[in-house]
Specification:
- The chain has one domain.
- 23% of the residues lie in helices and 43% in strands.
- The protein has one helix and six strands.
- It has a six-stranded antiparallel sheet, with helices on one face.
- Strand 4 and strand 5 form a beta hairpin.
- The chain is globular, with a radius of gyration of 13 Å.
- InterPro entries: Beta-lactam/transpept-like.
- This is Beta-lactamase-related domain-containing protein.
Length: 84
């Protein structure tokens, strides 16, 4: 699949009607696969962990709050899944 890099309305890659949303500017290759709805609804999959995320921020802007929360959940999940 060919991904087109977009700066606006946020930093992400778009292709075939879905988004590849990086979780960090330092790691643009990994992240979430899914879609942002026009009013802040979202559905994403994180292939590395197998986690799925759905929800809404109930506003046309505010996706960054959802991405930050999702990134926190993924970091916590990875920490708890690491062998001790």
């Amino acid at each position: 699949m060919e991904w087109k890099f977009l700066w606006a309305p946020g930093t992400f890659f778009y292709g075939s009607g879905i988004v590849r949303q990086p979780l960090s500017l330092l790691n643009m290759k990994d992240g979430l696969i899914g879609h942002w709805g026009q009013s802040g609804a979202f559905a994403f999959h994180h292939p590395e962990t197998g986690l799925y995320f759905t929800g809404t921020v109930n506003q046309a802007i505010g996706q960054s709050a959802a991405v930050h929360r999702i990134a926190r959940i993924i970091r916590h999940y990875k920490k708890t899944q690491s062998p001790t």
